[in-house]
Structures are given as C-alpha cells and as structure tokens.
Amino acid sequence: MSTVRDDFRSDYAAAFHDYVTAAAGERGLERAYELGRTAVSEGLSMLDLAAIHHESLAEALALATSAEEHARTATAATEFAMESLSTFEMAQRGFREAQEAARLEQHHGFQLRGLADAALAIAAARTAEELAELVSSNALQIIGASRAVATLRSAEERSLVIDTIAELDGPIHRREKRGMPPLHEWVCDVGELVRLNGVELEAHPSWSRVDPPAGTASWLAVPLVDRAGRNIGLLHLSDKRDGAFSSNDEPILVQLAQIASVAIENLRLYEHEHEIAQTLQRSLLPPSLPQIPGVAVAARFRPAGVGDEVGGDFYDIFEMGHYRWGIAVGDICGKGAAAATVTALARYTLRATALHERTPSRILGVLNEALLRHGPDQRFCTIAYAAFEPERGRLEIASGGHPPPLLLRGGEVEALGSSGTILGIMDDPPLPDREVELMPGDTVVFYTDGVTDAHAPERQISHEQLMAGLAECKGQSPAEVASHIETLALGGIDRPPRDDIAIVVVALENGARSRHVEAAGTVDLTLDLPPTPESAGAAREALAPLGERLDGGQLETVRLLVTELITNSVKHGEPGDEPVKVTVTLTDGAVRVEVSDAGPGFEPPPPRDRPLESPSGWGLYLVDRLAHRWGVDSGGGSAVWFELDRV
User: Fold this and answer.
1) Helix and strand numbers, DSSP H then E, in the chain
2) Which stretch of DSSP H or E encloses residue 86?
3) How do 145-153 and 160-167 pair as beta strands?
4) Using CA atoms, how far apart are residues 461 and 455, in angstroms rounded to an integer?
5) Is residue 212 a contact partner of residue 201, using CB atoms and an 8 Å limit?
6) Is the pLDDT of residue 284 over 90?
7) Per-residue DSSP letters for 570-638?
8) Of the residues 119, 278, 588, 641, which has the fewest C-beta atoms closer than 10 A?
9) How much is the pTM?
C-alpha cells in the first residue's frame, strides 16, 4: 500500500502544483477528478487523500512570497480538493443507494414470502371467521400497518357486514353491523385500490370520521370481489408503522385481496355443498327413531371424512303393519349423488315391498331385482334386513352380503345367520332366512363394516374383537351399547373415520307384550261372517254404529273397503265353512281394519298410474288408493289390513 500511496502522492503533488502555479484551468480540474477516481480504484481512503492534499498544499504555501499568492494558492487548493473528492462523494452516494435498494429488495422478499405463507394458511381455512382473522392479521404484518380490517358481507344477507379487526399489540376482535360506512361503499363502487393520506382523507366527501377514525395519517383499501365481479367485502389498512403507504405496498395488498376473495368464494361454495350433502344425508336416514312398545332402540351414524359428501351407509326402522317392524342396515357401493340415488331406491323399495311380502329373503330378493333393473352404473349394495315382531319376541333375518347382526344375551354374543350374497350383482342370489326367538333383555346389534374398518388399513377390528367388545355391554341400554361400539370403532384416533359408521341397537324389554297390547288400542268390533256374497252387505250394516266415533267420510271409506275385501275373500278364498273374520280397532290416531280368511291370499293391485284391465283386483286397488297404510299377511290363512288416520 505504501508504494501505491507514494506513487499517487507524487502524481497528485505534480498535478496540484501545475494547477496552482500554472493556472491549468479546466484541464487541471479534470486532472483532479481523474486523480480522485484513481484514489478510489486503488483503495485509498478519504483520509489518505486529505493527508496527501495537505502535504501538497503546505509545499505550495511555502513557495508563496506574498499575501496575494497565499490567498490565490488557498483558493486554487480548495477547488482542486473539491474536484478530487467528488468521486468519493459519488461513490458514497451510490453505496447508500445500493444499501437502500438492497433494503427494499429484502423487504419486498419478506413481503412475498409472507404473501406465500398467507396464501397457504388462508386456503386451508375451514370457517369464515378463521379466514377473516388470517386475512387481517397477515395484512397487518406483511404491509406493516398499525391496523388492518377484513370487512365481509354476509352471504345470506348482504346488508349484514362483519368486521374482523387486527391491531398492533392487540387481540383480534370482530363486530357485526348493518351496512358499510360511506367511504367503504365508495371504494367498493370504484372497484379498485385506493390510497389516501391524512389530508386527502380529511377532504374526501364520503369520509364519516368513523372508519378510518379521525387522526388517521394514511389509509390503503382494496375491494374484495368474487369471480362474477360482485363485491363481497373490503380489506383496508390504517397508518403504516414506518412512514406512509407506498406504491410498493399496493400490489402486495391487491394480491392478498385476490387470494382472500378466491378463498372466501371457495369456502362459501364448500359450505353450501356441505349443507346440501348433510341435508341429503339426513333425508336418507329416518328423521327420528320410532317408538316401539316394549322395545328400546338406539342408533349411531358417523359419515366418513369431514362430511362434505353423502356416504353410502344407511339404516331404517319402519312399521310393516300388524305390529311388525322392518329393520334395515345397508352399505351402498361408492359415495356422492349416485350412491344417494341407490340408497333412496333401497330404502323405499324395502318399505314398499314390506307391505306385501313377509319374509326378509323375499323382500331382499325384490330389492335385488330393483337394483339390477334401475341401479345407476351397476352399483351394488350389502344389507342386513330383519322382520321384527316384538309381541311374539320373533326376529327373522336375512343378509345380502352384509355382516350379520350380533345377539347379546346374558353376556354371551353370537352372530345371527350368515353374510349371504351381495345384492345388485346376480339374478336370484341365495339369501337364507334365519328366525330367532328373542327373550326379554336380549339385545341385537346391526352395523356396517365401517365399525371394523373405520381407520383401515393401519387399524382394523376383527370380528372376534367386536364380539368381545359387545360382550362387555351386558346390562347396558341400547344407547350405551351403540356408544360403546362407536368408541371401539374409532379407537381414540382423533380424525374422521375413512368409512361411514352405522349402528342400530334394539333390545326387547320385560313386559313387551303387555305394553304392546295396551298401546295398540282396543278392539271395538269383531265379526265372524259366513263365506257368502251376502256377508258384504251384513258387514256394512254391522259397521254402522262406528259412526258415533268416526266422521261420516271415514265411516263410509271403512264400509266401502270392508265390502270390497269381503267380496274378494268370498271369491278367492278356499271353499269350506271357515268364516270370514272382520276386526276393527280404534286408537287415538287411527282406525285399523283387518279382514281374514283361510284362503291363500290376494293378488297385489296394479300401480296407481296403470288402469285396471279387469274387475279382478279392484278391492285391493281401492285399498291402495284410499288407505293410509295397508298390507297382506299370509300365515295360516290370509289377512288384508288397512289403516286410516283419524284427523
């Protein structure tokens, strides 16, 4: 460095001497400027240059012989020094500018990273409240404001507005109000970003001095807009912490608003679809469990995932007539709308078929035919179906490829029947029936394979483990049993199951028969009539006294239907002396009539929208049209029953 300095000193002293003594003028100053550039490039400091200049000045002053020469030398020295030092000044200014550019670039990088992180968090929000909090808090941090507000219009009621407010060193809070302040509405109408300083804010005709409040030094706002161009809210910031909002802040806030707008619209779409899915799912399950005299019933249903798609599992419990109940638990292949279509087909096919068929295997057979004929995309299902007669303690079961129900009796557990064959795959699948006589205290559990496969494949419950878990429920109510089975299925894993879970538990209580008879009402009229055509008219006359308890329209409907059913019975019954029996039962809610004989039964009526081709079947056709419920029982004879609701 000393050699460089010495060489530079020699050049500087010579150039300085020429400028001071020879009046080199502009060429001398150009030389000074070049020497300054050389000093910078050679790594000399300003102190080095100052020292060299001082030495050269001292030598020049020593040679001056008069006061005028002293003054001229000093003035020339100042000019030469300033020109040589100008390069250092420019270098320092450039350094400062480079530092500022680096700082701005670093800050912009921080904003972009913050924006990327915010986009991920906002996209993952599951509620509007969570989303608004993320938007306001991230805007506060990324832009560096003192206050950030995400204002959202309600999706259900546009005039309802919800502010989510984030403030420096304060908790996030929310407030609801009707309508936006005029300035906010003006920005939404403008439809683009607005930046105002304190003076512009004070002068703005739409400012109400409320939001932003008086004393705000700077305000930055951008509308939130959905894909259709509709305004859904406003994102606005107040008072930047390190000065005023700048043009560099604008694109960051615009991008954050675009991210928020898309996320809000997606979230509202998700919530709408989720509500539709839940509504559809509820429509495929009974709205409530029926009250069955002498029987305790409980059910559990937990859809897979987050519940934004209709599952394939379902259950149903319904009255089949004549104190018989149908119990079904099934699993449709797939999920979504197509599975829901099959679920609805299965439920209503079971209910309709159970009015005319008694045995579970035959009812499942009709469902299989319906699936083969009408099931979309060749979808199949598994189902366990039971016909339950609490009064007799009788349960008849058939399974179509479904896990058979489990019987809990005195701490012992057994499977009722076999799995059978999946429905909707083949014609006439084997569907064996199994009849079980239930004792008071017996509990039967119907379930879908979501119980064993809730968190498969990492965790599965074996059939033996399920039976052992059920054995632990001795003495528990159906609700407690259902809860225990559900807990066993979930295994304490804190996430939604991968498969739907459906559980139905029924238990026969002590004294079921006596409670059933008491709840069923009283038999008000019993007729034993000879199997002759004249019995129809005799029955009409015998029913006349019921007019004291039935209104005129109901009495005439009962008399008409009884006349038709007796005529059918006489026409199609077995020849002999066995009477045709008519039983009328009145309850607070309905009148029930049953006409029975020793014959083989009746043909079902044609569909309501198909005209009768002959008088045959007219009686059952009228029953189908006029009765609220009806059915045919064939066991040791034939009986047709119907019910009319008493309004």
Assistant:
1) 17, 21
2) helix 67-123
3) antiparallel
4) 9
5) yes
6) no
7) HHHSPSSSPPEEEEEEE-SSEEEEEEEESS---PPPPPTTS--SSSTTHHHHHHHHH-SEEEEEESSSE
8) 588
9) 0.49
